[in-house]
Amino acid sequence: ITLILAGYDTTASAMSWGFYWIHQNPLVREKLLQELDTLGDSPDPMSIYQLPYLTAVCNETLRIYPVTMFSFPRVVQESVELLGHPLEPGTVLLPSIYLTHHREDLYPQPKQFKPERFIERQFSPYEFLPFGGGVRRCIGQALAQFEIKLVFATVLSRYDLALVDQRPEKPQRRGFNLAPSSGVKMVITGRRARQEFFS
To answer: Which residues, given as ranges, of the chain have pLDDT below 70?
Structure first.
């Protein structure tokens, strides 16, 4: 039941955002394709999963518009002070993934899609939490990340795609998800041949 309710639409929304951002940013697309081309014609899935720039693109996709805006609620068990705010037992806290991912002090220019930030810096689980955090984080985290990377690598390696609409995509809530409002319509413009790079 969990995979049907929480694992299907969330991953599809994340992939839609990823295809949108990759094709909105030609330099990101070019760099990603160069990395994918280093793997050869029949790459091992684990080799795909470990690609650093692909990982950075996926992380930045999940940062800029996290699929869910909030983590699961937490209930204060004993009196505590958090950042100068006294919290009493029974207080319900709702951590905002979206607001955390858009903090200027953590992510300069947070509205810009910049995968390099995940290569230049390692973020803590309190700074980057697209799957929630602690013992209540999404149980499908590893599967979702694996699936997203394999789909991106497979599709982008084989096909040239283009966005149908070049207007900026806007997020829209669909139940618990933060999905692209137009659905990110794309067309295949041709088949893609792997580029050979020589050093």
So the answer is: 1-8, 194-199
